[in-house]
Amino acid sequence: MRVNVMKKIPLPSFLLLAPLLLLSGCNLVVMSPSGDIAMQQRNLIIFATVLMLIIIVPVILMVLFFAWRYRASNTSATYLPDWHHSTKIELVVWSAPIAIIIVLASATWIYTHKLDPYRPIDRIDAQTPLPAGVKPLEVDVVAMDWKWLFIYPELGVATVNELAAPLNVPIDFKITSQSVMNSFFIPALAGQIYAMPGMQTELHAVINKPGVFEGFSANYSGAGFSHMRFKFHGLSADDFKNWVAKVKNDGIALNRDTYLKLAKPSESDPVRYFAYTDKALFNDILNLCVEPGKMCMSQMMHIDSMGGAGKDSEGNVKKLQYDNRGVDLSVSPPNGNDSLSQADTKPSKMVASNKADDTTQHTHMNHSMPGMNMPDSDNGAAKTVQTN
Length: 388
Prior knowledge:
By secondary structure, the protein is α+β, with helices and mostly antiparallel strands. Helix content is 29%, strand content 18%.
């Protein structure tokens, strides 16, 4: 038998329930995390919210009470038009907020350092300290247009748009970007960390519960941003070993040619597996010198620290053009300046939808160029130092 809900619930009551419909599509994963770092962040949010409600709730209730108690129609309420001061009220009004600010500031100071993403974790969960001698799982993260590349340097594998980690094992993420700024975010695991070209950020975390969790970029980065998502798998030790074996078995070699093809902008990319072979690849991605003939940022900064190379830097113009995606360098600018017409145009073959990203080009060429004529290499694998 069908029941007409609209007839059973009075209209005013139904209107009160209507706002709940707005929450029906919400995923409250931030408030129900599966990793210890995210759990501590959730607890801090709850603590700060409850602490502030100690003031907010009484104030709201007193506003309602005073509005009712001293309404115009209530002639029995005390009327004191000349009242102007009460020491007791002043003490309550000022002491309670000051106490809350002191407690909140203390908690913020403690957790700012305790939950620093660069700080290695010291526990598996609230009841389990980190055992001595546990080796973290290292994962190199590269934000691309518009996909995620995950490299496991110690396991010899890499993936696109799929990430996995064993339960209760510390994870050390090293994060960078191929082109523009993104934000690496797995709400169930930890907070968001920016991924920026030419820079390395870090995140230390641990996953405590098995499952498949959503990961994405939380920073707008162009036309394909909304599809820049991936799945993070929390697996048991045996399942993780099987996953690594599957990636090795199904994957192809990830070399520089493969990476340069992968680096071209694309949307809604499927999961891909790679047998990772080039140990220097992530370091050169970080230094913006994967492409043959490009000078690594670490080399340029070393030359700059030595005082520059003067006129010898003239030949390094093309080597320092890291990002000219979407720009046809063979066409002279409107002012007739064709100084860039002979520049290396390989990166400009990428899709034109990235023209807005040109604002993120590195500004090294606006400085007095510290140059060094580095010999071109067929594989572009100039040895560099980490620019942490």
